[in-house]
Specification:
One of its GO terms (biological process) is polysaccharide catabolic process. This protein has about 350 residues and is mainly β. It has strands spanning about 1-5, 5-15, 20-25, 50-55, 60-65, 70-80, 90-95, 115-120, 125-130, 140-145, 150-155, 155-160, 170-175, 190, 210, 220-225, 235-240, 245-250, 255-260, 265-275, 285-290, 310-315, 320, 335-340. β17 and β18 form a beta hairpin.
């Protein structure tokens, strides 16, 4: 796609939203070699845009970033970092800098007005505001609690969920246009969620979208699920293999790697949520997984050894194959290595 230096909006469509730590954007160096294999060394390792994020985004999300000046063909690497696991999602965009910015829109929208909160409950609240205006057009609104962005929407209302009970919130909204110009903040809508009174007998909602996240080995299966909601708070998750409870993790954790499994064996897993009062949710969807056969034995990876495309090594009990020549790039942390089934 053609692109120019300056404010640019990057749009994400998220099939399965996750609790998010940040969004980072990298670009290739001006003098990178597009005829050589794309490697870590091809990129400027300082992100040109780093957006901290606390919470779980909706299925549509966007960031507006100032793209640095480049010429010709370049590559942008966008990274979505998950907050409660070591996982991240990557997207690569091929761009071509035409060298001119044309008649760029540099006018920011007006601030949204009359932001207010209603239907405030123990874990939710409804926000509404008056539309901002712009010389071209407003494309979306970003919602902040204090200085932290917690949501975005193209509508003039938004239902906040998953809030903590008996907790103060200070909400503002900013408008964004297609060129990425961001308005000043709106007025603040301050409210405190309701406290939960009496005995808590309400169970959390069942975890959703339980799935295998990453690569299974002959003895391990990595699981991930979407967080449950509760009228007070989720304090933990129970992981089941068939009908057997095999692990309990904290309420802020939505991933677990099952270990000690047998190669080439079928397993089924479910997850349940638990709150502080001991109420247990219904089970999540069932995930059926068969572990792969035990891998062949390959030489251990050595940082001082040079490897060519097709070389196979073992590292941390996982087998890898090199895609091209490499030395000193750790398997699992470098794109040059692919996991062998």
């Amino acid at each position: 796609m053609n692109i120019s230096a300056g404010p640019t909006t990057f749009n994400w469509t998220l099939k399965v939203p996750h609790a998010t730590a940040s969004w980072k954007y990298y670009i290739t160096k001006q003098n990178w070699d597009p005829n050589a294999p794309l490697t870590r060394a091809s990129f400027d390792l300082t992100p040109f845009c780093n957006v901290a994020y606390k919470g779980q985004p909706s299925n549509s999300y966007s960031d507006t970033c100032n793209v640095p000046s480049r010429t010709g063909y370049q590559v942008i690497l966008a990274v979505w970092e998950i907050s409660d696991t070591g996982n991240a999602f990557y997207n690569v965009i091929d761009v071509n800098f035409s060298g001119g910015s044309g008649n760029a829109d540099t006018t920011a929208p007006t601030a949204p007005a009359s932001v207010s909160a209603s239907n405030v409950a123990s874990t939710s609240a409804t926000l509404s505001w008056n539309a901002a205006t712009d010389n071209v057009g407003v494309t979306n609104y970003r919602i902040f609690n204090g200085s932290t962005q917690i949501a975005s929407t193209s509508a003039l209302t938004y239902n906040l969920t998953g809030l903590a009970s008996n907790t103060a919130y200070n909400i503002t909204v900013k408008a964004v246009d297609a060129a990425g110009n961001v308005s000043p903040a709106s007025n603040a809508a301050s409210f405190t969620t309701q406290a939960v009174s009496g005995s808590d007998t309400q169970a959390p909602a069942a975890p959703t979208t339980l799935h295998v996240m990453g690569t299974s080995t002959s003895t391990t299966i990595p699981l991930m699920w979407n967080a449950s909601t509760d009228n007070v708070a989720v304090t933990g998750y129970q992981v089941f293999k068939g009908s057997t409870l095999i692990a309990t993790v904290s309420g802020s954790t939505v991933a677990y790697t099952v270990s000690g499994l047998t190669a080439n064996t079928a397993y089924s897993f479910t997850v349940k949520a638990v709150d502080a009062a001991g109420n247990v949710s219904a089970a999540s969807n069932v995930v059926n997984v068969t572990t792969p056969s035990a891998p062949a034995a390959y030489p251990a990876w050595n940082a001082s050894t040079s490897y060519v495309g097709g070389s196979k090594v073992s590292y941390n009990n996982v087998n890898y194959e090199a895609k091209w020549w490499t030395q000193g790039e750790t398997p699992g942390n470098a794109d040059v290595w692919k996991v062998l089934p």
